[in-house]
Amino acid sequence: MTFAEPLWLLLLLLLPVLAWVYRRAAAQRHVALQVSRQQAMRGVKTWVVYARKWIQGLRWIVLALIILAMARPQKKWYEEKIEAEAIDIMLVIDVSASMLSKDFSPDRLTIAKQVASDFVSHRRYDRLGLVVFSGGAFTQCPLTSDHRILQAFINNMQVGRLKDGTAIGMGLSTAVNHLKNSTSKSKVVILLTDGENNAGVVGPVQAAEIAKALDVRVYTVGLGTDGTVLSPVARNRDGSYTFATRTMVFNTQLLEEMARITKGQFFRTRSPQDLQNVYSSIDLMEKTVITSNSVRRTLELYFWLLDAAFCLLVLEMLLRWGPLRVITV
Questions:
Q1: Hey, which of 36-50, 243-257, 264-278, 286-300 has the most confident mean pLDDT?
Q2: Helix axes 108-122, 147-155, angle to 10 degrees
Q3: How far apart are CA 207 and CA 202, in angstroms?
Q4: Which CATH homologous superfamily contains domain 87-287?
Q5: d(CA 327, CA 329)
Q6: Structure pTM?
Q7: Cα(139)–Cα(91) distance, integer angstroms
Q8: Which of 129, 117, 138 lies closest to 86, judged by CA?
Q9: pLDDT range class, residue 252, cuts 50, 70, 90
Q10: Among candidate residues 58, 53, 140, the one with its CA nearest the CA of residue 315
Q11: What ranges do the domains of the chain cover?
């Protein structure tokens, strides 16, 4: 809060002086009544006596409020209007059984979910969606500006809801299908997988060609360490998995080709920090265009002070000419 005319506040310094002069003059005007014994006045004082002693204070408060009103207190703030040229981004995440491999703690899918959710929280003005795939592909969440809903879908991703396999082309083509009618100038797919394509009626390269034709840029992310990994080898009747060590095979050439076709980029991640860095890099490369305008607004507060001063002044007059009236003879 600020004051438009702060020099008027100097008058507040005069109030203590005026109060002292008034009290001194009042003491000279009143006549003291002397009695022989103090017991004679015992029980004479009532609430009127005490109230009359302090009623003058209301006038000083009224004067102080009027001075503050003359200084014109104001509340100022800035209203920011943001116009953003948003980017449409589809996340395509592998949920095949190999995503439960233990080379990431606790497993690959859990880390992928955490990093993807964090990425979504940084894209405040963009529309994002989610496609999951294993032996087939499924749209978990279409393009939306409600990032809390999308994060809920990301956190709810599970292995085993789709048939087993790795249909990379199906995952990409499903995401591209959601972006084909987008009016955004920038359309992006971030595809994360940890295995080779071995399923689906649409091949990865064919899906990349479709993405190129629709001006969709694809960033491919290869997740997982090289060599022997503790990974699921069989699914039990209760839905759980049996784990054993096995050698993981990763076809980086296919993911590199998909990224090259769509003018995107391929990333190889072998640790949670690598994956975090990948999403940070994509976040920097795909910048949302934002323009903001600040509008200054001011709210005058002096009339509140004048209203309070008026109410106190009326109260003081009613008391002074009512129950606190002094009769002179």
A1: 264-278
A2: 180
A3: 7
A4: von Willebrand factor, type A domain (3.40.50.410)
A5: 7
A6: 0.66
A7: 10
A8: 129
A9: confident
A10: 58
A11: 2-77+298-320, 87-287
